[in-house]
Design goal:
alpha/beta; Rossmann fold; 10 helices; 7 strands; 35% helix
């Protein structure tokens, strides 16, 4: 499943959003918490965890608190996001010398080419990052490579009905891609099997956020770094007339005077099989000498 995604634009977008992400990530925080709560039902005690696409590090902090001795790698494409991980960790380090944040380490890298040794992780957590993969099949194989046999993969991503109102409104204006493509739950499940993961469990749910106007919706997406990164996207500013036309097309979706934005959240977990973790991997240190603070 390949996508035409401009990774440089993804990196720039999330770098710009690093300071505003947490204020707008209401849905991501709620769905991430629901994903985290599912760990209560799974018997697994990892010692090395990869938070893939960590963003500002909220998931990393949850995992560090839950797994009392585990070392956590927060990996993200945007260095500015990792600076927020460090800021979050540093704050608690100053208050509590034995803070779990001392076990969080940062790596700036692309999830499509993870710079970690093979069979070095026994859990991968990924909350809302997989949708930015250029080739999901290849990314999942790479994830399987760095996992030990029997390791746990836990993830949440967006499904194809995400921002369906915005997508349809844009489609009435032109035929250019304005909203990113999101993967179908069943396709993700198939890709997990092909990558060597075992017994995948998939499900989904819908969230609807409402906005007073379209600029508020677009501002939220910008604050999240989640705007269109398709290689064939329209470049440059669209202007007030374009926004007025978009608002007019969006009117048909209005509910009780507000503009809805639907998000399809796909949850999944699977176990690493014995096959790909033995592939020869890269040979860098998993954790830097210097702790995050």
């Amino acid at each position: 499943m390949k996508q035409m995604i401009d990774k440089q634009e993804v990196m720039r977008s999330f770098s710009r959003a690093a300071l505003t992400y947490d204020t707008s990530a209401v849905l991501q925080r709620e769905a991430g918490q629901r994903l985290f709560d599912r760990l209560e039902l799974i018997k697994h005690q990892p010692t090395h965890i990869l938070d893939l696409g960590s963003g500002t590090g909220l998931g990393s902090s949850w995992l560090a608190s839950r797994y009392g001795t585990a070392q956590i790698v927060s990996l993200d494409l945007a260095h500015a996001m990792l600076m927020q991980v460090r800021a979050r960790a540093g704050f608690w380090d100053r208050i509590r010398p034995n803070s779990p944040s001392r076990r969080i380490h940062t790596v700036c890298a692309d999830m499509d080419a993870i710079p970690l040794p093979s069979a070095s992780m026994d859990m991968i957590w990924s909350a809302f990052a997989l949708q930015w993969s250029i080739d999901l099949d290849a990314t999942l194989i790479e994830m399987a490579r760095v996992m030990r046999a029997g390791g746990l993969l836990m993830f949440a991503t967006f499904g194809p009905d995400t921002l369906m109102e915005l997508r349809q409104a844009f489609s009435r204006l032109d035929d250019r891609p304005h909203v990113n493509h999101f993967m179908d739950m069943h396709d993700v499940g198939d890709a997990l099997i092909h990558a060597g993961f075992e017994t995948p469990v998939m499900d989904m749910e819908y969230f609807t956020l409402t906005y007073e106007n379209i600029p508020a919706l677009m501002r939220d997406l910008k604050n999240l770094g989640a705007h269109n990164a398709a290689s064939e996207r329209m470049r440059g500013l669209t202007g007030k007339s374009w926004l007025a036309r978009l608002t007019q097309e969006y009117e048909s979706f209005k509910q009780q005077g507000r503009f809805p934005a639907t998000f399809e959240v796909v949850y999944g977990h699977a176990w690493a099989g014995p096959g790909l973790s033995s592939v020869q991997g890269k040979t860098i240190k998993i954790f830097p000498e210097r702790r995050v603070s």
